[in-house]
């Protein structure tokens, strides 16, 4: 585990004091946010009253959890620059698509969640399937964030892992149950700045220690993985395909289209932040504003992982074995990369800031999962199918109880995440199960009015089943896949199966009348209803979603060419 004696961080009083101040701020924000919560809409969607810059930073901070920080630094140590694909191919295009194309439908329809959009488009069976699958996914992903959060506390204090997990869960539960989505979002804005302040110095000190960029190039070239780790393309090692053409195809289609669009455009954890915005324009700008920091985050999470892989003594010794899937002599894994770097490079005081940054990232991720889980479970499962037509106050109280239940379940799923050597692979497997088929259903249903309600739920079920089947065959050694290749293949299979099943079923079943699809399907929705205001608080060239998206896309293409 992460709490081996060699990994114990030498924290002093100043480090603990900084952590105490941080936790006081976090809980204080939750307490203040509680005073603004009087209805269920306030609790679950912040009353749709937040400005774009707040929701934009929260949008990206909600994703700065286990997969971003520990997962990406782990993959940086293991694969090097090809890990950049998770950002420049596997995130930015989909985030821009969400802002430009899909947010007008989400926000304009005034739905409270993504499953509720499914209800209006496809009816109750698809709504229930999506609600249950999403709630399950959020509990599993929250467990991954919780495990890594607890692992840091375990490393810092030496407490047993289960004690650390419970303590970490109580902290996140406290402010999320108090203030709902507003508490989560305002804490995510705070946590975004704490994470950057923590990780940027680690990157700078690490680059100095390794001898600058050229020093890093020399050391990586001479180590396991060699020069292939210094170029993002074609990424053979990270896909596990062993063929450059298949690797590029897998990265572009499997990661860049199916996994990426499936996550960013249909995942209510992210969409919920945009739906909390105070206007259509602000909602469209939310993911686009988030795209700009997302472009540059790789330099403070992946680069430190690469540095750890060449200067942390344990990883230097064990890297070759770990890349072969074998345990090393020292007992560390790639998940330890960031902690090893913190231990070796940071002085007291700065160590406290770095630990606060790690805790902030995990709490942001877990709180985002919990706030999305309580919304979907309360609105889309409990209110829709279990206890209907109660006063609003009942569902507000229920939301807090559901938050507590979700936290307890996340404690259990944290131990599932603990069994993975690279937490990023675990999360990508989950995305292939839940997000890839959902994206196929969404994209087909949003642009093809002939798609029927029966096709909506049946395509989802068959797509998910096919992804799980591919994953199981890979685990059994039947398919001979490894690394990201497993989730890419599972996601691609789920997408294709969902589309084929949906089309086939739609041909033999009855669609909804066109007048019931206005605002839900692109081809029958008047263009005027998809436009947003460009006056008042939405005026100015710097508030034009299309222009901002174009700038972000140009920067992303340039970085793909350079690296």
From TrEMBL:
Its main location: membrane. It is a multi-pass membrane protein. One of its GO terms (molecular function) is D-glucose:sodium symporter activity. InterPro entries: Na/Glc_symporter_sf (IPR038377), Na/solute_symporter (IPR001734), Na/solute_symporter_CS (IPR018212). It is found in: Membrane. The keyword Membrane applies. It comes from the Bacteria. Gene3D superfamilies: Sodium/glucose cotransporter. The keyword Transmembrane helix applies. One of its GO terms (cellular component) is plasma membrane. Belongs to the sodium:solute symporter (SSF) (TC 2.A.21) family. This is SSS family solute:Na+ symporter. It comes from Tamaricihabitans halophyticus. The lineage of its organism: Bacteria, Bacillati, Actinomycetota, Actinomycetes, Pseudonocardiales.
């Amino acid at each position: 585990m992460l709490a081996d004696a060699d990994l114990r961080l030498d924290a002093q009083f100043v480090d603990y004091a900084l952590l105490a101040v941080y936790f006081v701020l976090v809980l204080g924000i939750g307490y203040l946010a509680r005073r603004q919560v009087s209805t269920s809409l306030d609790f679950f969607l912040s009353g749709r009253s937040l400005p774009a810059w707040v929701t934009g930073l929260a949008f990206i901070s909600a994703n700065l959890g286990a997969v971003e920080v520990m997962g990406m630094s782990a993959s940086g140590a293991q694969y090097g620059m090809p890990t950049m694909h998770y950002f420049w191919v596997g995130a930015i295009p989909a985030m821009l698509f969400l802002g430009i194309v899909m947010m007008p439908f989400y926000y304009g329809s005034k739905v409270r969640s993504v499953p509720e959009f499914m209800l209006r488009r496809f009816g109750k069976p698809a709504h229930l399937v999506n609600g249950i699958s999403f709630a399950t996914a959020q509990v599993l992903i929250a467990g991954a964030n919780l495990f890594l959060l607890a692992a840091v506390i375990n490393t810092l204090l030496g407490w047993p892992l289960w004690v650390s997990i419970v303590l970490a869960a109580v902290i996140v539960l406290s402010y999320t149950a108090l203030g709902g989505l507003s508490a989560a979002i305002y804490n995510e804005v705070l946590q975004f700045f704490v994470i950057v302040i923590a990780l940027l110095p680690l990157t700078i000190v690490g680059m100095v220690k390794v001898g600058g960029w050229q020093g890093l190039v020399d050391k990586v070239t001479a180590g396991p993985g060699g020069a292939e780790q210094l170029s993002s393309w074609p990424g053979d090692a990270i896909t596990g395909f062993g063929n450059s053409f298949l690797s590029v195809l897998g990265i572009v289609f499997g990661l860049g289209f199916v996994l990426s669009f499936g996550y960013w455009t249909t995942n209510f954890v992210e969409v919920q932040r945009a739906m909390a915005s105070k206007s259509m324009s602000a909602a469209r700008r939310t993911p686009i504003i988030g795209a700009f920091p997302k472009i540059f985050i790789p330099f403070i999470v992946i680069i430190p992982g690469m540095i750890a892989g060449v200067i942390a003594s344990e990883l230097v010794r064990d890297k070759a074995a770990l890349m072969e899937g074998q345990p090393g002599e020292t007992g560390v894994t790639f998940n330890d990369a960031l902690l090893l770097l913190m231990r070796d490079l940071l002085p007291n005081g700065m160590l406290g800031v770095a630990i606060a940054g790690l805790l902030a990232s995990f709490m942001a991720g877990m709180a985002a999962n919990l706030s999305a889980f309580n919304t979907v479970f309360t609105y889309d499962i409990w209110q829709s199918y279990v206890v209907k037509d109660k006063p609003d106050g009942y569902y507000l109280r229920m939301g807090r109880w559901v938050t507590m239940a979700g936290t307890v379940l996340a404690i259990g799923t944290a131990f599932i995440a603990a069994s993975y050597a690279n937490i990023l692979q675990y999360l990508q497997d989950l995305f292939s199960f839940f997000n890839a088929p959902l994206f196929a259903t969404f994209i087909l249903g949003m642009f093809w009015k002939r798609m029927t309600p029966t096709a909506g739920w049946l395509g989802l079920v068959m797509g998910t089943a096919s992804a799980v089947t591919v994953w199981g065959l890979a685990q059994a050694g039947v398919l001979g896949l490894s690394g990201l290749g497993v989730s890419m293949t599972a996601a691609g299979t789920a997408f294709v199966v969902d589309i084929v099943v949906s089309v086939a079923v739609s041909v033999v079943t009855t669609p909804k009348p066109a007048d019931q699809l206005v605002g839900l399907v692109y081809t029958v929705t008047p263009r005027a209803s998809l436009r947003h205001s460009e006056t008042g608080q939405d005026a100015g060239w710097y508030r034009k979603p299309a222009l901002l998206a174009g700038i972000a896309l140009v920067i992303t293409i340039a970085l793909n060419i350079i690296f």
